[in-house]
Amino acid sequence: xxxxxxxxxxxVQAGDSLRLSCxxxxxxxxxxxxxxxxxxxVKEREFxxxxxxxxxxxxxxxxxxxxxxxxxxxxxxxxYLQMNSLKxxxxxxxxxxxxxxxxxxxxxESYDYxxxxxxxxxxx
Length: 124
Hints:
Elements: E1 2-7, E2 10-13, E3 18-26, E4 33-39, E5 46-52, E6 58-60, E7 68-73, E8 78-83, E9 92-99, E10 113-114, E11 118-123
Parallel strand pairs: 2-11
Antiparallel strand pairs: 1-3, 3-8, 4-5, 4-9, 5-6, 7-8, 9-10, 9-11
């Protein structure tokens, strides 16, 4: 059994920062990669960032590179997404996800488990 729970979403002004957290429980030892995806209304869910659990290798979408930072705390089974210089275009529901295989870190369909999502709204 696996459960991912996101927290930290909210309403912020453009240019502000926000830190999302995703706590994993259950069989988290199976996770090779944890990632963050986001989905705005009437848009497809898109990749934002991912991290290899063991090696702390990170991956970022071009749209967030240089502004977002993904990190993990192995002792807490938690992954974070530090979002700086937020733009109105970042407004979306943000989902935490995990996968047991390391391939396809940017692909929605390659992830095995998903959190419930947390709303991030950036006003301009």
